[in-house]
Design the sequence.
């Protein structure tokens, strides 16, 4: 169906108009199948999607030769701390390698980023964007990836010894997982639907292996407030959040 479309010109006497073939103007030309092309050199990245903060980031870059001839590639591998929209990029690691790949084989190299290279450079999201670019005689091959630095756990314990309606007694705890003190520390406490203004509470530094602890009482003046959200921030840990059900 659809191979031939015929219409009839308007006539004063029905059935006496001349037929007109409008197939060419009505139907768009059929698209032809695209030719599949394969790069002589393909670049692939391998890394964990999440890395515990304080642990090294290991990225493996592999160049595969799909051709019957050997190929040389100059590959630059870069890891950048970014926000979700890729704004405010800060390079945390980079490596360049020149590889010659035999026909049908592959060559790999790795970039190891020690924690001291990314600590203090992370954004709230803890996201690191990875990109490898290979300069080839016939053009450019690119591979991209994303990984996240996992923040430590912030424990939010809601105590049951309330003395008055709306009182929320809480206790917070978090261990410093780094081999460096936590500095410029701040805390935000929020009772959703009850907190009117979010305030940053300055805190003391947390030493290496030290335990951050804080307890207190807040007032929930809305019956719909069901949780306490605590957010710990420091120069080294940009955003650590814990939630406790009330």
Sequence:
């Amino acid at each position: 169906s659809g191979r031939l479309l015929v219409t009839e010109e308007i006539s004063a006497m029905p059935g006496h108009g001349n037929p007109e073939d409008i197939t060419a103007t009505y139907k768009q030309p059929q698209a032809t199948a695209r030719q599949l092309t394969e790069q002589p050199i393909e670049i692939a990245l391998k890394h964990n999607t999440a890395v515990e903060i304080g642990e090294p980031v290991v990225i493996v870059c592999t160049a595969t030769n799909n051709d019957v001839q050997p190929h040389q590639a100059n590959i630059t591998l870069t890891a950048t701390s970014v926000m979700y929209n890729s704004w405010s990029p800060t390079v945390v690691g980079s490596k360049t390698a020149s590889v010659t790949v035999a026909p049908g084989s592959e060559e790999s190299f790795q970039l190891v980023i020690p924690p001291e290279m990314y600590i203090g450079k992370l954004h709230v999201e803890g996201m690191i964007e990875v990109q490898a670019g290979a300069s080839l005689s016939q053009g450019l091959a690119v591979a991209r990836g994303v990984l996240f630095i996992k923040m430590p756990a912030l424990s939010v314990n809601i105590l049951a010894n309330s003395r008055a309606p709306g009182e929320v007694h809480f206790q917070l705890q978090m261990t410093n997982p780094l081999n460096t003190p936590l500095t410029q520390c701040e805390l935000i406490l929020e009772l959703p639907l009850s907190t009117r203004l979010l305030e940053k509470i300055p805190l003391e530094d947390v030493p290496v292996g030290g335990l951050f602890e804080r307890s207190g009482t807040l007032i929930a003046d809305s019956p719909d407030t069901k949780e306490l959200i605590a957010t710990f921030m420091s120069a080294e840990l940009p955003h650590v959040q814990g939630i406790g059900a009330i």
